[in-house]
Amino acid sequence: MITKRIIPCLDVRDGRVVKGVNFEGLRDVSSPVALAEYYSNCGADELVFYDITASAEGRKLFTDILTETASKVFIPLTVGGGINTVNDFDRVLKCGADKVSVNSGAIRNPQLIYDAARIYGNQCVVLSVDIKRVGGEFRVFARGGRDDTGIEAIGWIKRGVDNGAGEIVVNSIDTDGVKKGFDLEMLSAVCKAVNVPVIASGGAGCIQDFIELFNALPGVDAGLAASIFHFGEVKISELKEKMQEAGIPARLV
To answer: How many CB atoms lie within 10 A of CB 148?
Structure first.
């Protein structure tokens, strides 16, 4: 049986890891380099590194910090933020990323997913989608959750997979940072729509939230979280032991 992955997320702004609630009220946490090395050594299955203001500020991702972070990590590293062209994919991969996450750049140019997958392979292309309920509909938001695009989310995700995205990160803005559990309704809709790995993001507050996620939705491949790991509220080793006890396959260090 395939093990379920536990993925800490490093939201980076101005070279520091930050975390907020519902994508707002960001506060400083730590150095991305130190935090990445810590997670790499303590049982994380992968890491996600987001330069969260690159798209909103219309600039490229900080490659110097990324390069240093990648040098400390010995697990798969997914990187996103300001990815707008195939050249951005190339630049980030050369800094040490294993996979590249595209969000706002794909909204502006859906062809980007197809072009990147053709050059680097589907396994390298991760479509990250920030989703919020608007009028009873799952809606895609852009620029770090700032702008309502008017795009219906499930159809957008299906289109991204058809274009070559090999993995989907579902970021629920409604549950982000609230710590009351993953958005199971939203994740269920995504899992039913696509046949590529789905990563759940937004809402984890305790170990039980991960247990409930994987038990309720066996189609979800991984759980991603930030603040509960950053602030020591949940230790990855303990989380994985509890997952094993609950019959959920996990890689133990």
So the answer is: 12
Query: Model confidence over 18-63: pLDDT tens digits?
Result: 765 454 554 556 688 888 999 999 999 999 998 866 656 665 666 7
CA–CA separation, 47 and 201 (whole Å): 13
Which 8-state DSSP code applies to residue 209?
H
* Options 51, 88, 130, 183, the catalytic residue: 130
Select from 165, 58, 174, 14 the least CA-distant residue to 102. 165
pTM score, whole prediction:
0.91
Considering the four listed CATH numbers 2.60.300.12, 3.40.640.10, 3.20.20.70, 3.90.78.10, the one that applies to the domain covering 5-245 is: 3.20.20.70
Clarify whether 11 is annotated catalytic. yes
115 is catalytic: no
